[in-house]
């Protein structure tokens, strides 16, 4: 029989127990002592590693030299990683606001008069000293009155500057002084595993300024919405109702995302789920929060401030998808059936008609609405695209000038 404790081997067959019981006893005791010291060494290494990881610092030996790797960069220059998250929250919290929304109601007991009934709450981020605040579209959707609560206790009525349901973004404005705008970061530099901190009004004003911490769990998560795929940041930092519209920040206090949704197992699609993701969940989920990347939000925010809406290129048609089964049944090509042409649009000017079937755009085959949207999103208003259609057994290609959506 052979034992290996990582230091040396003992082979019991090498000892004659009849002739040397004392030698056997000494050998067993020595083996036990060696094993005990091995376990102590392993436990000590584990304790040191655990303590180092808890401080956000990993120590390792390389070619005989001990090196120290800082996992996260501190906000200050004193390398005090123990206060990292505390410093982040202190730096960012003054830029985070609570948002209360109201709808038109009736007077007390329904006896007439005009009043407002509180509808919901969310969070927002101050982005400039002029009082512009970014939040989610679903936070302010349908609101008749909006109130913004600052971290210093001041409250202001807010004006809705613009909103975009496709990206779930909205911009408000308050008339206030001594504001602290947030510092916006670069979401293209994110890496999976780095620190992420979410700040917002979880469950409303009673838990204003709630901070939760985690990591960046995933990047470029394409989740399906009513408008096509949406690119989001995934995080396990806890996101609760009321967090919507608040910031997701990195280790140096920069906003790298705007919290929007989370996946759960409860299935309530009416709360914080603008993309309708809850219905298909059949298993409990934990730590599945998502945020809009700040790099994708920036141009939308700027356009909302300038115009009040986001103008996107459109052809000027409404379409329906033709499946392979339908194509075989009616002897028509797979593509997009034009159900209606908007009068005065680029499609109307190009001669497209209801009943035409679009098979390609810019020489790229299209069979779904999402494919068409992806092509259009690469263009600007005023660009000319080629559209290939099937009409009464003939294939035609026409040039269509893209018009603006005017925020629709």
TrEMBL record:
It comes from the Bacteria. Keywords: Hydrolase, Protease. One of its GO terms (molecular function) is serine-type endopeptidase activity. Residues 302-393 form the PDZ domain. This is Peptidase S1 and S6 chymotrypsin/Hap. The keyword Cell membrane does not apply. One of its GO terms (biological process) is proteolysis. Transmembrane segments: none annotated.
């Amino acid at each position: 029989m052979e034992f290996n404790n990582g230091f040396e081997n003992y082979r019991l067959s090498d000892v004659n127990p009849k002739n040397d019981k004392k030698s056997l006893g000494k050998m067993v005791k020595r083996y036990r002592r060696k094993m005990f010291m091995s376990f102590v060494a392993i436990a000590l290494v584990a304790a040191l590693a655990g303590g180092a990881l808890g401080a956000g610092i990993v120590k390792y030996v390389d070619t005989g030299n001990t090196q120290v790797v800082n996992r996260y960069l501190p906000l200050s220059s004193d390398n005090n990683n123990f206060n990292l998250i505390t410093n982040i929250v202190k730096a960012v919290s003054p830029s985070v606001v609570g948002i209360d929304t109201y709808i038109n109601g009736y007077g007390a007991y329904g006896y007439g008069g005009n009043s407002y009934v509180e509808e919901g709450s969310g969070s927002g981020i101050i982005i400039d000293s002029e009082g512009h605040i970014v939040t989610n579209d679903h936070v302010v959707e349908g609101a008749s009155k909006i109130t913004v609560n600052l971290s210093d206790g001041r409250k202001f009525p807010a004006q809705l500057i613009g909103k975009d349901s496709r990206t779930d973004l909205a911009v408000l404005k308050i008339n206030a002084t001594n504001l602290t705008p947030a510092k916006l970061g670069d979401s293209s530099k994110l890496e999976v595993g780095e620190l992420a901190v979410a700040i917002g009004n979880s469950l409303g004003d009673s838990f204003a300024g709630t901070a939760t911490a985690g990591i960046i769990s995933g990047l470029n998560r394409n989740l399906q919405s009513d408008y096509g795929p949406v690119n989001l940041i995934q995080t396990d930092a806890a996101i609760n109702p009321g967090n919507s519209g608040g910031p997701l920040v990195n280790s140096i206090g920069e906003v790298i995302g705007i919290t929007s949704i989370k996946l759960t197992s409860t299935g309530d699609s009416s709360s914080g789920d603008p993309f309708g993701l809850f219905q298909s969940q059949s298993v409990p989920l934990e730590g599945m929060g998502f945020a809009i990347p700040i790099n994708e939000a920036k141009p939308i925010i700027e356009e909302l401030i300038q115009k009040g809406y986001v103008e996107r290129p459109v052809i000027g048609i409404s379409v329906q998808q033709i499946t392979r089964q339908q194509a075989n049944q009616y002897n028509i090509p797979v593509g997009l059936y034009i159900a209606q042409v908007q009068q005065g649009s680029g499609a109307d000017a190009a001669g497209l008609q209801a009943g035409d079937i679009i098979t390609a755009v810019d020489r790229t085959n299209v069979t779904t609405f999402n494919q068409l949207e992806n092509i259009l999103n690469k263009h600007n208003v005023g660009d000319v695209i080629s559209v290939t259609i099937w009409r009464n057994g003939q294939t035609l290609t026409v040039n269509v000038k893209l018009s603006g959506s005017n925020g629709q």
